Amino acid sequence: MMNHTIAPLYAALCAYERNRHISLHVPGHKDGNVFDKEADNHFYSILKIDATEVSGLDDLHHPAEVIAEAQEMAADAFGAAETFFLIGGSTAGNLAAALTLCAPGDTILVQRNAHKSIFNGLLLAGARPVFITPYTEPDTQVATGISATHVKVALKKYPSAKAVWITNPNYYGMGQNVAEIAEACHQAGIPLIVDEAHGAHFSQALNVPDSALKAGADLVVQSTHKMLPAMTMASMLHIQGTRIPREKLKRVLSMIQSSSPSYPLMASLDVARRYLVTKGRKQLVATVEKLEQARLDLTRKLEYLFIWSEIDGKTVYTRDPLKWVLTSRHFNVTGYQLLEWLEEMGIVAEMADLRNVVLVFPIHNEVTQIEKVINAVLQLEKKLANMPGERRTRNRTNAFFTRPGRLVKPSISLQEAFHFHKKRVPLEQAIGWCSAEMVIPYPPGVPLLVPGEKITEEHVNIIQEIKWAGGYFQGTSDETVEGIFVLVSL
């Protein structure tokens, strides 16, 4: 068994700091000796270990010493055959997966409600994605996952597909049956890729869902910084089995990751793994128990709000107990308004959409913090009870993704659409045209439109509704989305 009480990369950086050498190498702040004095109070300690590839610190792109050891320990902790540190977030991992598994023109099956980084990776690879439409959870109207049956139908229609790519869990903590999907993929002889950005803590306790690796996925990308205590952007890519060409993956990672990777970010992955194994797993069990009891007690007191929890085995197969999806039953109150009101009470939530606000709890949570959240929710409940307007028992149904399992193959690839001739038209006049850009409500970062996708009246209505409610977009040339670029022929 590995000794998870040590953090080899972090220890090497501490030794580097103690050396008190004269730095005549990059970075230019020279271990913090040349730096803005006003900001020095915050940055000083971290600058002392903001090093580069000097003797004793190893090289991310050719790891043979402490980085190699730290990655091996991470693989052991997360159940992978091999693990790679990412200093560009899960975005880097998703780009690497696409470029490793897809050549120009290759077909790949992709769950449609994927993060923008997956679409960007497919664009760079020149792949031809076939989108599988997900289910929609009825109470929250959130797009969830797909089923093994959907995958089997897609593989029968597109037998040349190089892989299947899913997202599990989604931003809201809702998961699908990854094990059954993995089995369907492996029966067809292709790998399953899983964007598990929000599930780095999965399988780390008995009262959280199983990880994608445990369910049999071949390549899994995790944002360690999202749900475990690593620094922002610090993530991991895990692989197992023989379906992933490892040497090609390593070459691709060296291409898309900086040749000067951040050592503090990498070290934060090392110590996050140590924290998780030595104390975090026990804390996770206790935190989930406290949160589940608090959710049940709070739910009994709510009439105008509810905290989603229903697992129906179809639209949702698993639920992350560290996430509370808080939804208003008041017709006139959006998730964006709930987010704003929570902020006024000192509670900064993770994200909001037209209906919901998402609260993300850490793996270790003090009872006093949970009590503050409960009090804030009860204040919101009182506020809604005193507002005029109709109360609903369920959300109105106007989900964007309809007909779960529907297969959509754009007539033009993402890469071709990116380089195609385009023009800008007013949004209302764009119906029937193919989009030339991504339209991405953010968060959660799932595109409503991707290049080459035909714009419908439904797209326009949802964009206008999000704008009205106070949401904003990424990916568009016009941040107001008053106009949009569309594809045109010469």
From TrEMBL:
Q: Which Pfam families match?
A: OKR_DC_1, OKR_DC_1_C
Keywords, comma-separated and alphabetical = Aminotransferase, Decarboxylase, Lyase, Pyridoxal phosphate, Transferase
Recorded GO MF terms: transaminase activity
Q: Which residues form the Orn/Lys/Arg decarboxylase C-terminal domain?
A: 394-465
Highest taxon above the source species: Bacteria
Provide the Orn/Lys/Arg decarboxylases family 1 pyridoxal-P attachment site domain boundaries: 8-366
Q: Which residues form a coiled coil?
A: none
Q: Which cofactor does it need?
A: pyridoxal 5'-phosphate
Q: Which SUPFAM superfamilies match?
A: Ornithine decarboxylase C-terminal domain, PLP-dependent transferases
Q: Which family does it belong to?
A: Belongs to the Orn/Lys/Arg decarboxylase class-I family.
Give the protein name, as stated in the record. Answer: Aminotransferase class I/II-fold pyridoxal phosphate-dependent enzyme
Q: Which organism is it from?
A: Aneurinibacillus thermoaerophilus
